[in-house]
Amino acid sequence: MLYNHDHDELSRSTSPLIVSVSVFDTEQEPTELHHAPTGLVGETPGDGDYPMVHNLRDAKYIFLVESTKLWVIAAPIAFNILCNYGVNSFTNIFVGHIGDLELSAVAISLSVVSNFSFGFLLGMASALETLCGQAFGAGQVDMLGVYMQRSWLILVGASLALLPLYLYATPILLLLGQEPEIANISGKFTAQIIPQMFSLAINFPTQKFLQAQSKVGVMAWVGFVALIGHIFLLYLFVGVFKWGLAGAAAAFDVSAWGIAMAQVVYVVGWCTDGWKGLSWLAFKDVWPFLKLSVASAVMLCLEIWYFMTIIVLTGHLDDPIIAVGSLSICMNINGWEGMLFIGINAAISVRVSNELGSSHPRAAKYSVIVSVIESAIIGVASAVIILIARDDFAVIFTDSKEMQKAVAQLAYLLGITMMLNSIQPVISGVAVGGGWQALVAYINLFCYYIIGLPLGFLLGYKTGLGVQGIWIGMICGTTLQTLILLFIVYKTNWNKEVEQASERMRQWGAGLYEIDKM
Questions:
Q1: Helix, strand, coil shares of the chain as percentages rounded to 5?
Q2: Strand, coil or helix: 392
Q3: What burial class does residue 353 get, using C-beta atoms within 10 Å of its C-beta: 0-12 exposed, 13-18 middle, 19+ buried?
Q4: The domain containing residue 393 runs over which residues?
Q5: Could you report how far apart the first and last alpha carbons of the chain are, in Å?
Q6: Helix, strand, or coil here: 2?
Q7: What's the pLDDT tens digit per position in 21-49?
Q8: How would you class 46 by CB atoms within 10 Å of its CB: exposed for 0-12, middle for 13-18, buried for 19 or more?
Q9: Where are the alpha helices (DSSP H) in 358-463?
Q10: Is residue 422 part of a domain?
């Protein structure tokens, strides 16, 4: 059963989510695939839903079409995310040449404080994936700019609310048990990167605006140029001018605002179909928009904090150096794979929201099936590679034989995690595309924090399994969450989702032709 937070209705469907021709709806009226399915890459929304599938040839054709549409969106987004990840990495690399103390302080600032605000603001901006995607699919393109401006306002307000976290980073870190010397330096650096946080309030809504229209190529180029420019600025400020941590912070701020403003310039100058100028409509329906944004933020943050907690729990084991080190190596490998699936997450969100907005229930369903199958294949392949190389891949990170042995013992858990993490982000993307954020937030809270964490604590501390026990418990939470989300998708009535998307567009798209420019 699927609970929809907008209408409090229960939707049911008997459509099976299995890897066979039957997943492509054979029970309705016959329609042959004598022509290419509508909705191909580059077509405008509203051309018509996919025809029925009746044989393996039809299924293979739609699978190819959907794969193309998925990766045209996912690949540039994944590349952009990888470049953004590189901005953080190179900041740490340059700071590492200043000193070990500075490296530890900056790593804590970026991984704890900055990562917290990053996840929260990204989650709030994810509401646009629902609204902009469905508006674009429904042909209400003019509303995309209004939604983006409304999100700017909300995210700037959220950044102001997060400001004390940056200003009081030192006492917060001391309260968490951090060494005073590290906490002091980290607090100063955190205060210096406040401008970067505010850049995210502009950056994220603009990204979602572009993603909804599948204009993601420019995001990849902006990310690549920003990474190259960031490396140059770090070299200039830290290596040449010798500004130390202040120089690293300045480069971080400049690069972040460069990305945000480059995207805004592109939107204003080249997206005239979706951008109609500043509008007073941005101040309309702020409260329901805020509720959806908060639900999106909670959904994402519960996932981010869950996987951060495993490091905290592991740090209190009897041999924390080996435990944390081996786990960090595994999480690093898992993180690189995660970059790809974040791109798929965004892509399937765009696909589902576009098709629901276009009143294409069958296309929305097929896009989900194809993305789940492809992601599962990637996850299994990744797990197999890890298991084959379990005794060797840790050499990349450490020369310690003891650490390599500890990593090898965790390899099977890493493989399982990589398989789960190949499906879970895709289903989360489907939830965002369909507007199910509140439902998924409750599911995450139950599976992660009522089941996963307590079970991990019990297995890790009470049975002698140590880090493996903690990880096994958290895998159980992730497995339960994935199974529940798969069941929800399995039972989803996509025709009902189309109706709800149409109602949402009627409600929030009111005044479409009354846009009053400032």
A1: 80, 0, 20
A2: coil
A3: buried
A4: 64-508
A5: 45
A6: strand
A7: 445 554 443 333 434 444 333 333 345 67
A8: middle
A9: 361-388, 401-434, 437-444, 453-462
A10: yes
